[in-house]
Specification:
alpha+beta, Tautomerase/MIF_sf, Macrophage Migration Inhibitory Factor, two-stranded parallel sheet, 76 residues, single chain
Length: 76
C-alpha cells in the first residue's frame, strides 16, 4: 500500500485539497495499477513561520528574494 505524504504551506482551501487527494489517487492507480482503497494520501499544512530556505523564513515579506541566495555571508 503506497502512502503519499505531501508537506505544503498552509493556504490551500478544502476544495483544492480534495481535488489534490483525488488526482494523486487517480494517477497512482493508473501508473501502478494499485486499487484506490490501497492508496493513502496525507497532506500536512505547515504555517509559513515554520518553513525556511537559505536561512530565510517563509513568513517574511522578502522571502522570495532572500531564499534564493547561493552563498552565505558569514558575520565576523
Amino acid at each position: 500500500m503506497p502512502i503519499i505524504n505531501i508537506d505544503c504551506w498552509e493556504g490551500f482551501n478544502e476544495e483544492q485539497k480534495k481535488e489534490w487527494i483525488k488526482e494523486l489517487t487517480v494517477v497512482t492507480n493508473k501508473l501502478f495499477n494499485i486499487p484506490p482503497d490501497k492508496i493513502l494520501v496525507i497532506l500536512r499544512d505547515t504555517p509559513l513561520i515554520n518553513w525556511g530556505q537559505a536561512g530565510a523564513v517563509a513568513a517574511d515579506p522578502d522571502f522570495l528574494e532572500n531564499s534564493r541566495i547561493t552563498e552565505l555571508k558569514l558575520k565576523a
